[in-house]
Design a protein that fits this description.
Pfam families: VinK_C. 45% of the residues lie in helices and 17% in strands. The protein has 2 domains: 220 residues, Malonyl-Coenzyme A Acyl Carrier Protein, domain 2; 66 residues, 2-Layer Sandwich (Alpha-Beta Plaits), CATH 3.30.70.250.
Amino acid sequence: MTDEERTAVVFPGMGPSTFDDLGRFLVLDRYARSRVAEADEALGESLLAGFRAERDGLGIFSQVAFQVSSLALADRAEAELDLRPDLGAGPCFGQRALVAYAGALDAAAAIRLTVELARCEDEYFAAEPEELVTQCFVRVPDEPFAEAVAGYVDSGEWVEVSGRLDRGAYLVSLRAGLLDEMVETVRRLEGYTMQTLRPAVHARRFGPLRRRAEEVLSRYPIGKPALPLVADQDGRLVHTAEELRTMLLDTFDRALDWPATVAALHRHGVRTAYVTGPDLMFHRLDCTTSSFRVVPVTHKTVSKPGALRPAGVRAHS
């Protein structure tokens, strides 16, 4: 605990991100153009061409585009908002930008790591006998929802909570064939359905995938992060290269706990959080907005004149 008010940078998790969502930003934004050129060199081909050709918004080029956009938005926050974070966090896929921002890998290596890990996941899930997905649910009553999940598990189904986002907001992994039934269950509880992630993420079932990812990660010289990081699984502090390596691997088979991450940031004195990336959710969650002054630096806020302001600066009425 500290009496000093600190600032954190948060790289958000990734939802489906298409060229229609991010293409204009990547082409026109001066910070993004620099990062795109860097990505082209790391990939050995055009990021924008590959991104434009992808349709589902979750493929390899989509992942790199999201990572590049997040770093470009952090560049803008540093240059124009004087962002100088004391701590960092990166829920879910946000870790991929965080590891580069923290200086534990250079940007080109971080991009290549994203590509290799994406291919590793594709190969792993191609061998699964049926499609596994992760569904985001919000505004569900916590106890009845937990009882519903337990009922599926007791019946022999694989249903696993892969993330706690906020009160009444969860990521749930399950068979794709069960998804429609689960969605209907949540609707009966008066909850809402958001994006579906394919393939599934953050589940204990994926221990073998973690071991494959560990082989990939062993080929990269992960260094000590330049600032303390907060792990998104439980809010523990990450100071060393080995702790960072463990955090990157934990994302495969340990559930996200965003409220615990928020609580840890707050406990360590963070009162202002800059969320830098194409985020549609993390900067809006109640646990985030009730804990920090939130400065969303997204591809949408930077496109609106006067919308991007440092913490504590209000718009003129």
